[in-house]
Amino acid sequence: MRKRSIMDRRFIRFIPVLLGLICLILFSSPAVAGRVMTDVKVIHASTGSSHVDDALKNIIPELESVFRYTGYRLINEQRMMLNFNQKGRITLPGNRTMIVIPSAMNGAG
């Protein structure tokens, strides 16, 4: 079994934070005529630092209610206006890409 590289281990830390933010953003964004405004933030979360980027200060209480990290650094932010079932692509560290597809909207919220 091969050892995971440092980049692989760092990317694994991105996954829970990124997925949590996507759910938060997609399900709280208003739909306009069948379109959804998405705002995806790629965040490096760590336990070795207590630094928090100023751009993230307004969502820190939500992050801390779900995750046990102490430091948050904004790596990338991308806003997209997407139609339902339309693919949006976000560039992730490590030459990776994530696809976001809005598929439903619940009016209760």
How does this model look, in words?
By secondary structure, the chain is α+β, with helices and mostly antiparallel strands. The chain has one domain (6-100). It is 28% helix and 34% strand. It has a 3-stranded antiparallel beta sheet. A two-stranded antiparallel ribbon has the order 4-5. It is globular and about 40 Å long. The chain starts with 5 loop residues before the first helix and ends in a 9-residue tail after the last strand. 8% of the residues are buried. The model has no long low-confidence stretch (mean pLDDT 76).
Furnish the topology, listing elements before pairings.
Blueprint: H1 6-28, E1 31-32, E2 35-46, H2 60-66, E3 71-83, E4 88-92, E5 96-100
Antiparallel strand pairs: 1-2, 2-3, 4-5
Strand order of the largest sheet: 1-2-3
Radius of gyration: 15 Å
How is the main sheet built?
3 strands, antiparallel
Tally of contiguous helical segments: 2
Question: Into how many domains do the coordinates divide?
Answer: 1
Q: Give the helices and strands as they follow along the chain.
A: HEEHEEE
For the record, give the distance between the C-alpha atoms at the N and C termini, rounded to a whole number: 46 Å
Relative helix content: 25-40%
Overall, the morphology is: globular
Strand composition percent: 25-35%
- Regions with pLDDT < 50 over 5+ consecutive residues? none
State mean pLDDT (0 to 100 scale): 76
| Structural class estimated from helices and strands | alpha+beta
Count all strands and give the number: 5
